[in-house]
Amino acid sequence: MGGTADTHWNGDVARRLLPHVLEVPGADHGMYVPGPLTDSIAVLGRIVVAVEEFLDAIDWPG
Q1: Which end of the chain is flanked by fewer CB atoms within 10 Å, N or C?
Q2: What is the pTM of this model?
Q3: Secondary structure class of 35 (helix, strand, coil)
């Protein structure tokens, strides 16, 4: 998971290395996006869903 405004994030490399990648346009290293705080909270929701999907994909015990 990474944001396009994070100078440490390289989405191209992440997608080459892993099949499970969430890239958030405009998000910084803390996954904060500019604008209303509710936009950053929505990013957190996307992260939770991505983690759930990843765990389902690897058949994690649940």
Answers
A1: C
A2: 0.86
A3: coil
What is the distance between the alpha carbons of residues 14 and 40, in angstroms, rounded to a whole number? 22
Q: Please check whether residue 54 is in contact with residue 20, taking contact to mean a CB–CB distance below 8 angstroms.
A: yes
Decide if 21 contacts 15 (C-beta within 8 A): yes
Q: What are the CA-CA distances from residue 60 to residues 39, 45, 51, 52, 55 (Å)?
A: 29, 20, 11, 10, 5
7: three-class secondary structure by DSSP: coil
- In the 8-state DSSP scheme, what is residue 59? T
Q: What pLDDT, on the 0 to 100 scale, is given for residue 61?
A: 84
Cα separation, 48 vs 37, whole angstroms: 17
What are residue 2's DSSP bridge partners?
Answer: 23
Residue type, 26: G
Q: Tell me if residue 23 falls in helix, strand or coil.
A: strand
